[in-house]
Design brief:
8 helices
């Protein structure tokens, strides 16, 4: 089977997991968007410190890359605890993106700045997040099914044969997630700040970075 077919199979056969993650992300997004004014005093200072401090350089881009990869690996392995970490992570990320959308719309009456700061790398980073969360949930399911097989007195070989497709999907999804996180980090470090500055200045503001 070609690698493209393998990827397609991994995505299609686990579509229920992706649908669930999309719903959770949307819930976090909608809640934060609606409550943006109320949570801004708490959340905005933290985001400014994380996103807008200092000048963006190639070193920052690689720092972002390291952070993204660390997050992906953490989500992947921590999700062995019943997939809870993946669920928390996807809701939290939806919450942050929803807050940023709501805050910029209510502050500037436009989505332009939000789109400039999120869209260039977000269109790659958010799918990478979904892939890493899905692979983490599949890792939990793989371990659970192997343990279940052992309880039912299957041999290791039999258990592997029963679950090898899940293991293959795990490896495919986490590999794609890591690749996308690397690409997103480079875009976030080198391109997003420039677009953010342009959008801010076009709206009559000052440079953000």
């Amino acid at each position: 089977m070609k690698i493209s077919d393998e990827i397609k199979e991994a995505l299609i056969e686990n579509k229920k997991i992706f649908y669930m993650l999309m719903i959770l992300f949307a819930i976090g997004f909608i809640i934060a968007f609606i409550m943006a004014d109320d949570i801004a005093p708490v959340l905005m200072p933290m985001l400014k410190e994380a996103l807008l401090e200092g000048n963006v350089t190639s070193i920052d881009a690689f720092s972002i890359m390291f952070h993204n990869l660390k997050s992906a690996i953490t989500i992947f392995f921590a999700s062995t605890l019943f997939g809870i970490f993946a669920v928390i992570s996807i809701i939290a990320n939806g919450f942050v993106v929803g807050f940023m959308a709501g805050y910029t719309v209510k502050s500037f009456n436009t989505l332009i700045i939000f789109l400039a700061l999120i869209l260039p790398h977000g269109i790659i980073e958010i799918p990478a997040l979904f892939l890493s969360c899905a692979s983490g949930i599949l890792l939990f399911l793989f371990i659970f099914r192997v343990l279940k097989d052992k309880i039912n007195h299957y041999s290791f070989t039999e258990s592997y044969q029963n679950n090898k497709k899940t293991l293959k999907h795990i490896l495919i999804l986490i590999s794609i997630a890591i690749l996308l996180f690397v690409i997103a980090a480079l875009i976030e470090g080198f391109i997003t700040p420039q677009l953010g500055n342009i959008a801010s200045q076009q709206m009559g503001g000052s440079k953000l970075f």
